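Q: Could you fold this chain for me?
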Amino acid sequence: MDAGTAGLLGGVIGAAVGAVGATASAWITGRKAEQQAKIQSETQLGQARLQIDADRDRALNDSRKSAYLAFAEGWSQVHRALGDAALKLGGIAASDPPEEREERRQAARRLWNEARVLNEHLSRLMHVIFVEGPFPMANGAQAATGALVDDFGAVIDWLHAVDNGTETPQHGAEQQAAHGKAYSKLLEFLYAASDATALDQANIPNP
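A: Sure. Below is the predicted structure, expressed as structure tokens.
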């Protein structure tokens, strides 16, 4: 092979190698860009999913808070009416004039009936807690509502004793004990509600 042919062949091979190198470089660059675009797309999709989950969790958390607060307020109205009825009964003395005694007795009965009506509404609020969940909160609401039963019973027993003129200090003591025990169940519900919503909130990223 003469020098001219060898030079020509070398030039051709060099050009071919250069073309292959350029093609390979372009392919690698294209693959990198494709991979980066894929990673970016997956990252954006992941962020979108996290945001959707966060919005859903935040909405659930807010809905549960509203349900818990509505139940607590409804419960407190029943409890307050029973407490007011007890105050009326506690203000009755054997030495009171008949008309004053009767006035307090009737007021206590009205308050007890008011508490009973409010308790019917409380049952509907408790159903909302069962729907909202979680299950321990439904149990807590049921326990708080059930604790009012003894309070209702203590007030009506006291009222019947007043009707018959057989009331004793024991009636007041029993009502006070039932009233306090019921309130302790509400506090347990409120503490559980605080924990439940705080736990949910901790898992929700800030927008």
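A (continued): The two ends are 76 Å apart (CA to CA).
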